[in-house]
Amino acid sequence: MHIHRHTFSFSSSLFLSAYVFLHSILAVGSVPVAKTITVDKSGNGNFTTIQEAINSIPDGNSQWIRVDIRQGIYIEQVIIPKEKQFILLQGQGTSTTVIQWNAHAAPGDSGINTAAFVVSSDNFIARKITFQNSYDYKSKQAVAVAAVVQGDKCSFHDCKFVSYQDTLCDYRGRHYFSQCWIEGGVDFIFGQAASVYEGCTLNSILLDKGPSWFTAHAKVNLSAPGGFVFKNCILTGSGNMYLGRAWNQYSTVLFYKTFMSGIVVPLGWDSWQHDVSQITYAEESCTGPGSNKGQREPWEKHLSAKDWNKYLGREFIDQERWIEQQAP
Description:
Layout: H1 12-25, E1 35-39, H2 50-56, E2 65-69, E3 72-75, E4 78-80, E5 87-90, E6 97-101, E7 117-119, E8 124-127, E9 130-133, E10 147-149, E11 154-157, E12 160-162, E13 168-170, E14 174-178, E15 181-184, E16 189-191, E17 194-198, E18 201-205, E19 212-213, E20 215-217, E21 227-231, E22 234-238, E23 241-242, E24 244-246, E25 252-256, E26 259-260, E27 269-270, E28 280-284, H3 305-312
Parallel strand pairs: 1-2, 2-5, 3-6, 4-7, 5-8, 6-9, 7-10, 8-11, 9-12, 10-13, 11-14, 12-15, 13-16, 14-17, 15-18, 16-20, 17-21, 18-22, 19-23, 20-24, 21-25, 22-26, 24-27, 25-28
Helix pairs in contact: 1-3
EC number: 3.1.1.11
Protein name: pectinesterase
Organism: Carex littledalei
């Protein structure tokens, strides 16, 4: 099958302007917090569990409420329903504030119902928290989701996501991940969302040589919003990893100015036997031993500067400046 390859016309000035433009809007703004709730395992706060604090927030909430989570390992499944918007979860650091749950999905199940953390509401922020599914993957591998993000306008800053198989379900909506650590071995970022990952580290803990996959993305159709965009990230760890596999024929994943260690397989991408003509997989200005594109799949897209700007600019996830309007 002959696949048309786009003519690549790269303009460094256009890339720089797009990067500066997007970076300038991805700063957290100054919308005030209306109320603060404290969670403390030792009993010195308003609640001893995170879920109790979430449950106390009224449905239909329209003002930012900060939930300060003091240090500790909170062994509980935390679920934020769609009715409870404008919540900010504030931890004290990924090494000290941990949401942990030990569960895995039955064969054929998505794993959403057994995830350690699920946010279904719009307008959500998390900072300095670890989300971990502590299922023992070394004894038996199974889907064990650390976090499911299926609300719109959700952002995560300095957070950590830890599991092995299907770590982060970046399911649907528009999301922003800044300076996060995402760890897994198989499909550990997957979903249909439109998301920007900036300054994040993807750490493979693959048990064998593999290969396996960093990402598995899908879209409902070609014109639907969606795609994972990685900017100034780091890909590292063990095993041999594809940059992504196509969950369907509209899969969209892009890496820009990302360091790729030698664990990235030379082919780069896995079509998973889907029609590749509508898959959008692309890389630009990446570094490291895994960034050599000499043996990449011939159907990898070669985007123009204009096309790249579409993914790096505001219109991809933030036309209405929702990120800078989120609470401090």
